[in-house]
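Lay summary

Proteins are chains of building blocks that fold into shapes. Our project writes down both the chain and a compact code for its shape. Here are two examples, one after the other.
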Amino acid sequence: MTDLLKFLSKANWNSVRYDFLIITSILFSLMVTYCQGLQLNSLSTKMPRVTRYTTKSPASSSMNHDATTSIYRFNATNGITCILISVDGLISIKYRNKLNEDVEADLYLPDNPVLSGECVESNMELLTLEFKGFKLSMTFKKSSGGEGWYINLFELTYSSSNPLFEHPDRPGLDVKLTSPSHTPMYFPTPVGKSYVCDKEQTVVMYAPLDSGDQSGHIARLYLRDLHMQSFMFKDSGKWGPPFHCSATGSYRDETAPLAVGTALAIAVLLTISGYGGWRYFKIKKVQYGTME
């Protein structure tokens, strides 16, 4: 009987060591697969930085950001700043001329446009810049829980006969371009903080098919050195704490990593539980056979 107990004890210890090695290998393999999945996902969604234009020539010899950016401040009716934007911006519009060629016309966001807007509703704000026959509007909204703000819509309106366009094929049209409805959240930021991004941001605007716009124009809004905040309502009118954009110029969706992590944890748990049950019954069977 003593020899039998020694044999079973040695067999159980070897089994434990074997189980530990197997479980460790399984966990390592799952972690490697998980990390590779995240890396591939990052590589597939990472967008290269697009440099469309040269920044505005500074008014002085200074080459700091203040020399190339424009500041737009919009105050509520009580005189308190509610929207504040600092940016080096350019609008590039693609159109077709009378020679049936696709050409582009560029214009910078000016330093002193005519500003208008609304800062009345608690969950929505509007800022409009008017300059050189163009009107650029941005609609700011709060998230459903009220903890964050973002730009919900960009809209650009003008006439296709604007002097910016040389010999357009369809003059005299009232053009209205908007950001796509399937991208309803630009630059999400916590309320009370300001969005800061040194990476060039691009917003595409076009006329939806059901709009009746036959101009065929497409506009791209390029934003550099962007510093922006809405829903401020500060007496000082100063920026809130900065909230920086990610290295790729956009925000990572935390839902996918969370779902993958949860699935990984469940898979590990099921694997360990299944393997433990299989080992338990196998050892039980071996011990029962040995006892007989």
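And here is the second example, written the same way.
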Amino acid sequence: MEIPVIDFSKLDGEERSATMALLHHACEKWGFFMIENHEIDTNLMDNVKQLVIQHYEANMKKRFYKSELTMSLEKKEKLSNTDWESTFFLWHRPSSNIYEIEGLSTDLCNAVDGYIDQLINLAENLSELMCENLGLEKSYIKEAFSGSKGPSVGTKVAIYPQCPRPELVRGLREHTDAGGIILLLQDEQVPGLEFFKDGHWVKIPPSKNNRIFVNTGDQIEILSNGMYKSIQHRVMAEKDGNRLSIATFYNPAGEAIISPAPKLLYPCHLRFQDYLNLYSKTKFAEKGPRFESAKTLANGH
């Protein structure tokens, strides 16, 4: 099963229409895809990954393998209510806590800040492309997410450590993401991420050539009135190697009110006879404008 790959370099040329159609298909039928040629500095991406791994080795690894979780696994207990992961969370917008996290080096903080500045531009570009495909104003998602201080942006940094008994525990249990657009910078060698599609778990390969993996969260499904999907996914524990995951969430502000975009809603609260009257005049015309007229009728105009 070939995961959709969106080549951003094709959005400015003759292949724009085909690329936009592929993006729409990916959001509608898959809920996840990869982006290449995204113009984020690949040296910066590599630096972030390297510095995160150094931080894990120096500050997190020893503590993880001495944890109660590890002790339970050594007793051969099946763990169904916990995850085999070592993590920390960073906030970037509307305000940052990165310099408050104990043990993070200045180099790591600076690298993450630079990476996130570029990634937010990508997330907002992607949100505009989604809006275009949905027939919405290009700033609709950003404005819907904004609240008083703009969208909320945070990053979950996770290492899924080498696991001696992967059959007893999940790296991360099955879930959908609560928020908006998730952009994942992931491991280049160690697998483990899986998404559920068409009744099967699809294995997501490690990201080669600094592709960014994207999935849509619950709020995009709500805003699009179910047209774009948030998809259940999980991380499997692996016996060989540590898997790196740097997942950045472009989310609504806490006070943002999210609801389906009115333009995407079907007509509702309309008497069938009134619809039939409209239909009799427009039967052989396009359905879309008829639905728009029906919405106007339903609103009392």
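What can we say about the second shape? The chain has a mean pLDDT of 93.
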